[in-house]
Amino acid sequence: MRFDGVIPPVVAPLTADGELDIASYERHINRMVDAGVDGLFILGSSGEVVFSTDERRKQIITETMRIVEGRVPVLVGVIDTTTPRVIEQAKVARDLGADAIVATAPFYAIVGPKEIERHFRLIKQAVDLPLFAYDIPVCVHVKLSPAMILDLARDGVLQGVKDSSGDDVSFRNLALLRTEQGLDLSLLTGHEVVVDGAYMSGADGCVPGLGNVDPKVYVEQWQARKAGDWERVRELQDYAARLMRITSVPVGEVGFGAGVGAFKTALMLLGVFETNTMPEPVVALEGSNVEAVAGVLRQTGLLD
Amino acid sequence: MRFDGVIPPVVAPLTADGELDIASYERHINRMVDAGVDGLFILGSSGEVVFSTDERRKQIITETMRIVEGRVPVLVGVIDTTTPRVIEQAKVARDLGADAIVATAPFYAIVGPKEIERHFRLIKQAVDLPLFAYDIPVCVHVKLSPAMILDLARDGVLQGVKDSSGDDVSFRNLALLRTEQGLDLSLLTGHEVVVDGAYMSGADGCVPGLGNVDPKVYVEQWQARKAGDWERVRELQDYAARLMRITSVPVGEVGFGAGVGAFKTALMLLGVFETNTMPEPVVALEGSNVEAVAGVLRQTGLLD
Amino acid sequence: MRFDGVIPPVVAPLTADGELDIASYERHINRMVDAGVDGLFILGSSGEVVFSTDERRKQIITETMRIVEGRVPVLVGVIDTTTPRVIEQAKVARDLGADAIVATAPFYAIVGPKEIERHFRLIKQAVDLPLFAYDIPVCVHVKLSPAMILDLARDGVLQGVKDSSGDDVSFRNLALLRTEQGLDLSLLTGHEVVVDGAYMSGADGCVPGLGNVDPKVYVEQWQARKAGDWERVRELQDYAARLMRITSVPVGEVGFGAGVGAFKTALMLLGVFETNTMPEPVVALEGSNVEAVAGVLRQTGLLD
Amino acid sequence: MRFDGVIPPVVAPLTADGELDIASYERHINRMVDAGVDGLFILGSSGEVVFSTDERRKQIITETMRIVEGRVPVLVGVIDTTTPRVIEQAKVARDLGADAIVATAPFYAIVGPKEIERHFRLIKQAVDLPLFAYDIPVCVHVKLSPAMILDLARDGVLQGVKDSSGDDVSFRNLALLRTEQGLDLSLLTGHEVVVDGAYMSGADGCVPGLGNVDPKVYVEQWQARKAGDWERVRELQDYAARLMRITSVPVGEVGFGAGVGAFKTALMLLGVFETNTMPEPVVALEGSNVEAVAGVLRQTGLLD
């Protein structure tokens, strides 16, 4: 099983009272699969994993597997603070049919490099699914070292990396060493605004949050990249960067509330989601902020 | 019910194969209660909350309540990433008999000040127990603002603060404003090496990790503080600062592995714990590091 | 020559067109010396060293030495990016009569611990005056390690430390080790809001920016500390903490503009400074911000 | 005058006793100009500006202008803590013939956004040369906001940006807005390992430290970029990324000591520099570290 190409981190629609909105979710997943995405990553940071109870997490996995029906591989985030808790999540994901799991370094806990490495080894030992390391220092406050990643790839622990580190220099070095050492390690970038640069660096695909809103642009970009049409790769990236402004126009919002808040609002405006409800303690975009998102959608031609 | 004085964050003993060691735990809790502590804080950062599965968390609460038998109040850490998950933990703690709960700001999730404030309000709404805010930027990577804390105290949301912020200037300002505004807000410091300074600033007590190893020194210091004997407060603090070196002598260890690793090792050397086993992915101190901890215990007279 | 007690970091008055205001400066220095301060620290962070050209720095040293006339020792900040530039500043300070010099770790430059240690050794080699290490991570973005400080004290390189690190735990450990090792190292705290805690930890004095506004309170506090009257030490600290609010009431200002801006404004309101002019690119407090500072001065009784 | 293409930040050769090595400097500059670079940036971070006294800075400018003789434009770093000091440096640069000047945000000083903007405006007012903003948070600990940069470009204050921010997402957004708004703002990337990605984002050129060692590769890459030959751009980048390993092979060195230390060592091994002497307090690479640099040069074919 390959894990490359476009693998959006799936955003979860909620009903007005905070339940998972199944009808919207079906529309949303089918829209992305129909657009030609190569996989789906659920329960990632924008998939509100840390805002979801264990029950909700199970529901999201179960519904996703049911809707996807094997059309594309499903990667499941098993995001929790430390090894014992992550392994519990990983077993649930495995039992519900995940094709691969995605884990971060330990967080909240203050540990060092040797504990981080041991963490990934123990997860793989406990649950023998393809394992992706999720490098996201903005959430876990530590950067995974390329040297450790390469060691873990060589030992068969890691299948790939989902890179949201914001460190393009480190990513280039990792990609180059991976190739030189002949390692089978799938490198996916999470930075939807500079996927073209990541492709130049050797990325095998992307995990674009913005792909929830416009999956086609990333699919077409990936095809252009495979065809070696770099000018097209670049043009599509400029378009996506303009569309990404839906996340910077909301006033008075930051982080998850601005980013996922804008994705949900755009999907509501596009008729995919019923509401733009956010999980507590985040409040949905309202009024002029919704209007601002609509304005960007109009400028980029997604909305009339 | 008062929450002041010495309230150690209880370290959990494990058997060699990683189970909760009940016999050691009984010895440990009784030793602290007998020393005269004013409360116990379980499932805090050093109480390995983020290393414990939900099952283990329940076991720790249940066993603690059974052993303590109401002799002192028990504060329970309900540490999880965001509001829905924290509320779940809070309900469990309440149902198992917690006297108070302790929650941090959201972590991993990237949110702003308004979400942090809403987070505490929603927790209090869901579970009407005395609620402490746990200010620990080294783990959650955000500092709670004194202005927000005072607002929440005024509205009856917060009962107190467990301050592990490392920001003594902010703590002084908070304590002064709390007093000027006549608010009933219990301020406890988590910095066991400078409790004397915190008492000068107006702290109502302390939550010293080192109090696991030597509860008596903090109890005596609190009595000296109440008696206004500041020279004694200071002398005892200097002694405690020397004892705290058990956490800096281990070589090649950082964070939780060095700190809690040293506490567990000291308790093993003192005959309170059976082992110094650590939760995964952390490995227990060994060999010369154990010897180094023993050396400090001998220098401070705790070990012959 | 002793360097202990109260050593304010002298704020420099400017005329409306940005020149050093000599008449105000004489009033200011004489007011502090008359209040009984034990020394003066010029060209520190609040002494606008990094806002002053070399010419201005020389003028400040020259005028200070002339006004002080040996009544108290004068410590001179030799704050610049790296060793060659600091040594130049140190030679100027020596030639103009400095009693001691104060240097930070290198900044802007990205160096490691061994370069920091070599930096201090080379400064001392070049200019054989009493040398203080200025530990101010908020400006130079590195914390000096207690182990390095102790080594440098043992080798006669450092005479003392001006601690503005905000790390009270580290300060306690440094003070304790210094005493245990019998080193002659003067430890001065720069945190004017928690001097009482620093005295508990073993500080030999303070370098309070707020001492520009009210030098008497720190002088009286130091006397109380020497007399062992800790309750008085604490009361005076609470008073000073309330007065320090002049720096938090200005709206729309941060850092140097808020802090030194408020000190200058208070000194203007107290009739010591002619203006509250700030060095470029900072703009002086105006309108309601001046009024807010005046309000705090009235509340604390400094202004009618 | 255009400022685009390849503009290496010139590394300064020193004699064994720390003087500027004029003969080596001539060889070095001529080698880069002969290779076809489009400009030279002197007294940047790797040009040891913060390690140089004012006298040395003047000498470097003077010698550079003499050697270059107008063959390419010379940009001069006027790097100092705040406005008054930067303006002094800027006047010197202007008087010695600089074609453009490059300034960072204030550093050491704690200021906010409005002071940063005023800083650039005042510099431009004082010295009417083309002004580049040097965005280098790793040294000055603040990131320049794209919105401010665009405002300053619109008002004719900024001619360009030298981006060493490590934030490729922000760079993409800046480049896109600059183009959409029709601003004449030259965007140069300082990240020599991912210049291809920066070109995809719209960069007008690069300021590659590694261009000191191998200027030809960056010149050829820039030509390929202008020709739209993206595959070639990428191949050359991979080669440069491998060569950049000279900076990661030294053991026990960090930051400037590792980076510029490796550049100087490579230039010594290539016969361009006489020595690899570093400015105090940094020590030159020695022994096995020199050998490691030589190893990388051999692997990449620069050394036999």
Spatial sequence of strands, sheet with the most strands of chain A? 1-8-7-6-5-4-3-2
Fourth-level CATH superfamily of chain A:
Aldolase class I
Shape verdict of chain A: globular
- CATH domain class name of chain A: Alpha Beta
- Strand runs of chain A, count: 8
Helix content of chain A: 40-55%
Q: In CATH terms, what is the fold-level topology of chain A?
A: TIM Barrel
Coarse structural class of chain A? alpha/beta
Oligomeric state: homotetramer
Uncertain regions spanning at least 5 consecutive residues of chain A: none
The largest sheet of chain A is: 8 strands, parallel
User: Using CB atoms under 8 Å apart, which protein chain pair has the greatest interface?
Assistant: A-B, 41 and 41 residues
The fraction of residues in strands of chain A falls at 5-15%
What does this structure look like?
The structure is a homotetramer of 304-residue chains. By secondary structure, chain A is α/β, with parallel strands linked by helices. Chain A has one domain: TIM Barrel, CATH 3.20.20.70. Helix content of chain A is 47%, strand content 10%. The first copy, chain A, has helices spanning 22-35, 54-68, 83-95, 113-126, 137-140, 146-154, 168-180, 195-201, 215-226, 230-243, 255-269, 287-299, and strands at residues 5-6, 40-42, 74-77, 100-104, 131-135, 160-163, 186-189, 205-206. In chain A, helix 3 packs parallel to helix 4 (113-126) and helix 11 packs across helix 12 (287-299). Chain A is globular. The first copy, chain A, starts with a strand and ends in a 5-residue tail after the last helix. The mean pLDDT of chain A is 98.
